[in-house]
Design brief:
Helices cover about 35% and strands about 25% of the residues. The chain has 16 helices and 21 strands. A nine-stranded mixed beta sheet has the order 10-11-9-8-7-6-5-2-14, sandwiched between helices. Helix 3 (about 80-95) packs across helix 11, helix 4 packs parallel to helix 5 (about 150-160) and helix 13 (about 385-390) crosses helix 14.
Length: about 450
């Protein structure tokens, strides 16, 4: 077996729909078997230690047709203001139930477009969070930003509130691709947003790029990378577009005939990766790239990389508290997800209840398998024996249950005793390799994206 991906192997593995493994078990396995009462008791049982916060702002000015997030278009300010009132109430409710002292090491605002709110609303919300939770002095405070709508006043407010990392949606600088996804954003807009953020103390800035978009060509991918690196972002996340119109109806506005096929997607993804490495970025895990002095690159080098709902991270906290409609939290006991429908979320919070809609309670081998999958996704290798030792579990038993045979036969992984390593040429398929340890994976899962 040669150390290359043949067309047959590429077709078999790259077209398979696989989870991104930002959690284990993954979100499709959440159910209403986890209730608000469960979450209250889980919060109350937390022991002193670190925690992270995720705050979801589910509004945008316009809908990008590729979007897979929980968000809605708001053309007026009133819905955003009402939502922020409910979010503030939820913050108070959650903090009331957290009896054990938790020190916040990471705070991430996602969306949607968190900067949809006014600068004063941002200041008020951050004041509320800091009054309810104790933040580490070195806590990372991050936010997702649409450069098209960022104002000078908001950039100033973010600096005043202590934000030190921003993720800017770029996706592609190709005009034809931008029109096909309903997101027209000039290079100048992105440049100006970066200038404003840097001027207000934003020390780390990330870009999000996407391949697999309609009308995208190899040259347009490389042109986007060439323009992006001139702005010197600290990190780039390069995602494959997940076309799931059955779950995201607005994606039906995308012309499926204009989407690159599997071979083109793979070619584009590897060309982007090679161009970024050539530009001096370190390739991290499946889809992240960082400058060598970035904490993410350092964590990857030292084996301290982690993966959560925001992708690859340096966040080591075992507790993630989700706030806002659709947000997901992680407790030592399992996962919880808030109500997705904004009016229902607001009514529940108004009644003084935590807005939990569903979740998952860890059982059996879940934590063990999740740890193995995380190491594969982060390091492209895992010492199964070492992980099993942490859980007092027989590694031989776990390895017998793993579906490694075809992966070894196809030359994608190597197995030496209890050590599993992904071959360099197979690293783009690491999601399919991690799935060998997934005891919950359904034979057909249309809601997942292609492996590449």
């Amino acid at each position: 077996m040669t150390d290359t991906l043949s067309p047959e192997l590429l077709a078999r593995y790259a077209d398979a729909r696989m989870p991104r493994y930002t959690s284990y078990p993954t979100a499709p396995h959440f159910s209403n078997a986890v209730s608000e009462a469960d979450y209250r008791s889980w919060l109350a049982a937390l022991q002193p230690g670190k925690a992270s916060l995720y705050v979801h702002i589910p509004f945008c000015r316009t809908m990008c047709w590729y979007c897979g997030c929980h968000t809605t278009v708001a053309s007026r300010e009133a819905p955003v203001a009402r939502y922020l009132d409910s979010l503030t109430k939820e913050i108070g409710l959650v903090s009331r139930y957290v009896r054990g002292l938790r020190t916040i090491s990471h705070l991430h605002f996602g969306g949607g477009t968190p900067t949809m709110m006014s600068p004063d609303q941002m200041r008020s919300l951050m004041q509320e969070l800091r009054s309810r939770f104790s933040f580490e002095d070195a806590a990372e405070v991050a936010i997702e930003i649409d450069p098209r709508t960022l104002t000078k006043e908001m950039a100033q407010a973010l600096g005043e509130c202590g934000f030190d990392r921003a993720s800017l949606g770029v996706q592609s600088f190709d005009d034809g691709v931008q029109r096909a996804i309903n997101r027209v954003q000039s290079f100048q807009q992105t440049h100006e947003a970066m200038r404003q953020l840097r001027a207000n103390g934003m020390t780390r800035i990330n870009f999000d790029l996407i391949y697999g978009l309609p009308n995208q060509s190899l040259q347009s991918c490389l042109d986007t990378v060439e323009q992006a690196v001139t702005l010197c972002p600290d990190r780039l996340a390069v995602f494959g577009y997940a076309h799931v119109p059955a779950f995201k109806p607005h994606q039906r506005k995308i012309d499926e005939a204009a989407l690159p096929d599997s071979d083109a997607r793979f070619t584009h993804s590897r060309a982007i990766a090679e161009a970024l490495v050539h530009a001096g970025y370190v390739e991290i895990g499946l889809d992240h790239f960082a400058l060598p002095d970035d904490p993410l690159a350092q964590a990857a080098t030292e084996g301290r990389l982690h993966r959560n709902f925001q992708g690859y991270t340096t966040d080591e906290a075992q507790v993630l508290i989700g706030l806002g409609a659709s947000s997901i939290g992680r407790m030592p006991n399992g996962y919880v997800q808030n109500e997705t429908r904004i009016p229902v979320y607001q009514n529940i919070v108004a009644g003084g209840r935590l807005p939990i809609a569903r979740g998952y309670r860890f059982e059996g081998e879940d934590l063990l398998r999740g740890a193995v999958i995380e190491r594969l996704m982060c390091d492209n290798r895992v010492d199964v024996g070492q992980v099993c030792e942490q859980f007092d579990f027989d590694p031989a038993q776990l390895l017998r249950s793993a579906k490694l045979g075809p992966l070894i036969a196809d030359g994608l992984v190597e197995k030496h005793g209890a050590e599993i390593s992904v071959k360099p040429h197979a690293r783009p398929l690491v999601r399919s390799i991690a799935a060998a340890f997934d005891a919950h994976l359904a034979p057909s899962a249309d809601r997942y994206s292609r492996a590449v």
